[in-house]
Specification:
The protein has 281 residues and is of the alpha+beta class. Helices cover 16% and strands 31% of the residues. The chain has 2 domains: 61 residues, no CATH class; 214 residues, Alpha-Beta Complex (Fumarylacetoacetate hydrolase, domain 2). It binds zinc ion.
């Protein structure tokens, strides 16, 4: 199953690439707010097949700018640092023995298209697989963890490196939370849509030049392990968002270092989900 937040309303994307307004087609049984659907995730999944029989608008006819973030108001946002060994190496940091966790404050989240204002400093890119929780829980076993996931999406963990590395301890959460620094979209895709949800390709490019390409199969802590370890400490709630870490190729790890500048177009993709395009200004 695939979902989209189109013009601020929950839509189902059918297998033949049409979009259905879920609130309208169910006579208001479901809320038009996409964030609300995660509270009733199993119910939505059970009616999706019926809804998919309706005739909708062709997906190709939906203007890109109409797509919003499929998880725009999570109660918690988790982000995992150093989750690919080759990225830890380019950052001159050790591969961690346990999760390195920070947050991106909710106001940093945005949709899959549009402009992003660069603050002063050094703004870097990080393509990431984003996971949205469908069921909450504590102590979730890794073997069961994918069953708690609503779906995955494309994410960018934009990071202002100067602030991030200022002071005696890293300022991950603040430096990665400027407005627009957490784009997510364009679709939310359920794990069963992938041949292997632990092996998903992802990457990004600037002005058409490929700068990151990787596979989630290279994660130090795969998605089920992230969910198991997070939920040992803190309850995970329906609709929570997890940025799962970035593969190598970030700007700070290059020689010479490279950062985003006004006029750059950042294209970010996850195979099987879609792509996001953002213009830096
Ligand atoms: Zn990151």
């Amino acid at each position: 199953m695939r979902l989209a937040n189109i013009s601020g309303r929950l839509h189902l994307v059918t297998p033949d690439d049409h979009v259905i307004d879920v609130a309208r087609e169910t006579g208001g049984h479901f809320s038009p707010r996409i964030q609300d659907c995660y509270e009733r995730w199993s119910e939505l999944r059970s009616v999706a097949y019926t809804l998919e029989q309706w005739r909708g608008t062709p997906l190709a006819d939906v203007p890109p700018a109409s797509f919003g973030n499929p998880a725009p108001q999570p109660r918690q946002v988790f982000a995992i640092g150093l989750n690919y060994a080759a990225h830890a190496a380019e950052a001159s940091l050790a591969v961690p023995d346990d999760l390195t966790v920070f947050t991106k404050f909710v106001t940093a989240l945005t949709g899959p298209h549009g402009t992003i204002s660069l603050p002063p400093g050094t703004v870097d890119w990080e393509v990431e697989l984003v996971v949205v929780m469908g069921r909450g829980g504590t102590g979730i076993p890794a073997e069961e963890a994918w069953k708690y996931v609503a779906g995955v999406s494309v994410g960018q963990d934009l990071s202002e490196r100067t602030l991030q590395s200022s002071g005696p301890a890293p300022q991950y959460s603040l430096a990665k939370s400027f407005p627009g620094f957490g784009p997510i979209g364009p679709l939310l895709v359920t794990p069963d849509e992938f041949e292997d949800p632990d092996r998903i390709e992802l990457g990004c490019s600037i002005n058409g030049e490929e700068i990151q390409k990787g596979s989630t199969s290279d994660m130090v802590f795969p998605v089920p392990e992230i969910i198991a370890r997070l939920s040992q400490v803190t309850p995970l709630l329906p609709g929570d968002v997890i940025f799962t870490g970035t593969p190598p190729g970030v700007g700070v790890g290059r020689t010479p270092q490279r950062f985003l500048k006004p006029g750059d177009e950042l294209l970010t993709w996850v195979k099987g989900v879609g792509e996001m395009r953002h213009l830096m200004q």
